[in-house]
Structure of Alpha/beta hydrolase:
Amino acid sequence: MQTQPTTLILPGLGNSGPEHWQSIWEQKFNFTRVQQADWETPVCADWIENINNEVQKHYAANVILVGHSLACTTIAYWAQKFNVKIKGALLVAPSDTEADTYPPGTTGFSPVPLIKLPFRSIVVASTNDYYVTLERARHFADSWGSEWVNIGDAGHINSSSGLGEWHQGLELLKKLE
């Protein structure tokens, strides 16, 4: 009998508020949010240490990471440093920390690591995300060895996108289980 995977929620810059699909999933399915000390002016080294500490609390081969925005880049940095084999990662709306339009205040998240991830992953992007062009998101997916999913016009795939529970995302998550 296969045990349920441990699903860790990793919000991006500013955290994910109560209307964000990540928060809805966390509440509804009892997923665990990886807490960060600084959501507004994060330091990459701190964020990846927090991810690693949380992953190490569980059987890593049964962990699924669900990253949004800046957390996608953080997961790539974490994989590059620790090379831990987890079950998989759902990487939603990866933001382009190298773009001129990216908000200031983050430390160590640029350049975006363009390494093949040592675990299965799915990158989900939107055609009108203001934090990453579709071409850059596809480049990240290709570099990371990720399955690519374009969900059309959905903005930054956050609470402003009005996705609620985001059933399509849950179906993608099931592919990693």
In short: The CA atoms of residues 76 and 113 lie 6 Å apart.
